[in-house]
Amino acid sequence: MSTDAARDKFRTHLSAHGLRVTNQRMAIFDAAFGQTEHFTAEDLLAYARAIDDSVSRATVYRTLPHLTGSGVLREVDIGKNLKYYLPNRDSSAQVAQVICVDCDKIFEISAPFMSWYGNTVSTKLGLTPVTQRLQVSASCDSLKATGVCKHRASA
Amino acid sequence: MSTDAARDKFRTHLSAHGLRVTNQRMAIFDAAFGQTEHFTAEDLLAYARAIDDSVSRATVYRTLPHLTGSGVLREVDIGKNLKYYLPNRDSSAQVAQVICVDCDKIFEISAPFMSWYGNTVSTKLGLTPVTQRLQVSASCDSLKATGVCKHRASA
DNA sequence: CTGCCTGCAAACTCTTTGCACGAAT
DNA sequence: ATTCGTGCAAAGAGTTTGCAGGCAG
Question: Is this structure's pTM higher than 0.85?
Answer without folding.
Answer: yes
